[in-house]
Amino acid sequence: MRRAVRVISSQGVVAVLMALLAASPPPAWAGHLGDSPGQKHAAVQARLALHSPDISPGGRISLSQVYDESGCHGGNASPALSWSHPPAATRSFAVLMLDPDAPGGGWWHWAVFDIPAGAAALRAGAGDPARHLLPPGAIQVRNDFGSPGYGGPCPPPGPPHHYHVILYALRVAKLGLDESASPAKVAAMARTLAVAEAEIVGLYGR
């Protein structure tokens, strides 16, 4: 018994292959190649960002933020801060200010935590506990000068020091600390529980 053999022309083969390709799902990388420049730019920009009208990145810190004792003469007002694009997992924020150039391995100028997740800014001067400008529930501890709240830059005479204002987005609503905690303790817990962080670095010397 002779079997029938069906011969497909070259044009038919091409048509079949085209049909199979059309029915196949696109490869996983195809979507990435198809992203527009605007989409890629938006993804990069959607990171936690910290802003301040009082401290420009790499700029000199003004006298209004400088300490007003120990040979320094300034306004000792904490800078105004605002932030954007916190991760969805954020439950609270912490803000710290550190001078890593200070003798002894660093000097903590400010530590405030348990800032509610719905907050997006701290007003100028919020580091003064007497002014009651912090969001409800936020807690400040003593800085390394020994005073509660904010203590501004006051380096020894010499080259400018770098002052890191650091914002942590935290995965917990409360750190479980109170006003008696040290800034170093606040910083250690904030680093451990952070889902994102951002910072501004300003300079000051005298």
Radius of gyration: 28 Å
Shape type: globular
Largest sheet, strands/sense/barrel:
5 strands, antiparallel
The neighbouring-strand order within the major sheet is: 6-4-3-7-8
Q: Tell me, rounded to a whole number, the average pLDDT.
A: 86
What is the count of helical runs?
A: 4
CATH superfamily name? Answer: PEBP-like
Q: What order do the helices and strands follow?
A: HHHEEEEEEEHE
Which regions are unreliable across 5 or more consecutive residues at pLDDT < 50?
A: 1-10, 16-21, 26-34, 40-45
Total DSSP E strands: 8
**CATH class membership:** Alpha Beta
Number of domains: 1
Q: Please state the second-level CATH architecture.
A: Alpha-Beta Complex
Strand content: 15-25%
SSE-based structural type: alpha+beta
Helix content: 10-25%
